[in-house]
Write a structure and sequence with these properties.
The structure holds two protein chains of two kinds.
Chain A: E1 3-7, E2 11-12, E3 18-25, E4 33-39, E5 46-52, E6 57-59, E7 67-72, E8 77-82, E9 91-100, E10 108-114, E11 118-122
Chain B: E1 9-12, E2 18-23, E3 34-39, E4 46-49, E5 63-68, E6 71-76, E7 85-93, E8 99-102, E9 106-110
Parallel strand pairs in B: 1-9
Antiparallel strand pairs in B: 2-6, 3-4, 3-7, 5-6, 7-8, 7-9
């Protein structure tokens, strides 16, 4: 059974770069989409972006200028970097797996496996 | 502001049937499939419905998803106390090279 685990600093200073890693265990990264989603305190879910196991990416238009998602299939990990953070980037960050879909290229169905989430606070 | 519109709250008594709506547009729900997530307090979201009306293994058939035009609905029958949670719809939006959008979420209270 595939499991995901986020890791990274829980506190980041304003204007610095937030870096998180998601480790995939119990299965292969092949043929799946690997996503990042976040949830500010008391608010709803926001999709950040994904990376396909082969390296193709899609990003949220509102965050595109600040984010990079990368993958290392040899380590069964994928990572998120969000630069120039502000207090508005304070959130629980989740990694998740997308189900490959047939209806459009590089789209996926729902995200069927999620990590437990990691809280990142942006503060000096 | 979410592009997919959900009612902020819904409620029902045990055994009842409740429906949660999700309204979008031609660039998202009108062109792509809809997924629903359940988020119990303090936990990660769980996929409840994908591809409009398919349930992942382990999701009870009390949960039913449907889509018509630019709107979708999640129906929960035989409401149980453990169904009290936040529910989110999600879909791809074809604008700006394609991205996933979520509804604002609906807090379901079991009275």
């Amino acid at each position: 059974q595939v499991q995901l685990q986020e890791s990274g600093p829980g506190l980041v200073k304003p204007s610095e770069t937030l870096s998180l890693t998601c480790t995939v265990s119990g299965g292969s990264m092949s043929n799946h989409y690997w996503s990042w989603i976040r949830q500010p305190p008391g608010k709803g879910l926001e999709w950040i972006g994904y990376i396909y196991y082969s390296g193709n990416t899609k990003y949220s238009p509102s965050l595109k200028s600040r984010i990079t998602i990368s993958v290392d299939t040899s380590k069964n990990q994928f990572s998120l970097k969000l630069n120039s953070v502000t207090a508005a980037d304070t959130a629980v960050y989740y990694c998740a797996r997308g189900i490959p879909a047939a209806f459009k290229p590089y789209y996926y169905y729902g995200m069927d496996v999620w990590g437990q989430g990691t809280t990142v606070t942006v503060s000096s | 502001q979410s592009v997919l519109t959900q009612p902020p709250s819904a409620s029902g008594t045990p055994g009842q049937r409740v429906t949660i709506s999700c309204s979008g547009s031609s660039s998202n729900i009108g062109s792509n499939t809809v997924n629903w997530y359940q988020q119990l307090p303090g936990t990660a979201p769980k996929l409840l419905i994908f591809n409009n009306n398919q349930r992942p293994s382990g999701v009870p058939d009390r949960f039913f998803g449907s889509k018509s035009g630019t709107s979708a609905s999640l129906a929960i029958s035989g409401l149980q106390s453990e169904d009290e949670a936040d529910y989110y719809c999600a879909a791809w939006d074809d604008s700006l090279n394609g991205h996933v959008i979520f509804g604002g979420g609906t807090k379901l209270t079991v009275l």
